[in-house]
Structures are given as structure tokens and as C-alpha cells.
Amino acid sequence: MIYVIATTPMKPENKDDFIKGHKTCIAKTLKEKGCMSYEGHVSVNNPNLYVVVERWETRDDLNAHGRAPHMKVWREYSSHMKTAPTVIEIISDGKVEKF
Predict the structure, then answer these.
(1) Which residues contact 60 (CB under 8 A, 6 or more apart)?
(2) Quick one: which of 95, 92, 98, 87 has its CA closest to 43?
(3) Helices (H), strands (E): how many in the chain?
(4) How many Å apart are CA 31 and CA 26, to the nearest integer?
(5) How many alpha carbons lie under 13 Å from residue 46 in its C-beta half-sphere?
(6) Closest of 5, 63, 3 to residue 33, by C-alpha
(7) Are strands 87-92 and 95-98 parallel, antiparallel or unpaired?
């Protein structure tokens, strides 16, 4: 099993649009092969930090998710709504990879 934690600092003025747009992404992602869970949350410590928690059956499923057409749309849609790039942590087999 693969776990992913992705954190994105949102511009306060775009927070509502960011969250609304990600809900569309969530709905499509949950239909992908190997997606066990995919949830988005606003941090309890920082109202402008969005946290996505994911679980995937395999690394191949996660890699396919990154190439999915709706992910390209999401990256383009959300790019101007961030104050910094998304930090992605992939957790599997007792190790953590950070991007």
C-alpha cells in the first residue's frame, strides 16, 4: 500500500475556489484504478494550508494517477492559487520520499 500526503499553501483570496475545484478532482480520482481513499482537508493549524491524504494499492496506480487527464486540468486550474509549490510525501515500505 502507498500513502501520499500532499500539502499546498493556498492564497487566502483563492481558498474557496481552490477547495471547490479540488472537490471535482476528488470525485474523478476516487474512480481511478487502485485508489483506496483520496481526501482533501484544510489544516487545523493553518487555514490557508490544504492537505490531501491518499491511499493507493500500488506505485503503478499512483503513477497513473499523476498522468490522468483530470490531474493535468487540476494542476493548470490551481497553479495561480498557490503561494508555493505543493509538497508531496510518498510513504511506502517503511520509507518516505519527498518532492
Answers:
(1) 34
(2) 87
(3) 3, 5
(4) 9
(5) 10
(6) 63
(7) antiparallel
CATH top-level class of 2-92:
alpha beta
Residue 41 CA to residue 34 CA, distance in Å, equals 21
Q: What is the pTM of this model?
A: 0.91
89's grid cell: 510525501
Instruction: Judge whether 8 and 89 are in contact, CB under 8 Å.
Output: no
CA–CA gap between residue 9 and residue 86 (Å, rounded): 7
- pLDDT 10s digit of each residue in the chain, 99 long? 999 999 999 999 999 999 999 999 999 999 999 999 999 999 999 999 999 999 999 999 999 999 999 999 999 999 999 999 999 999 998 888 888
Map out the domains of the chain as residue ranges. Answer: 2-92
CA distance 51 to 9: 9
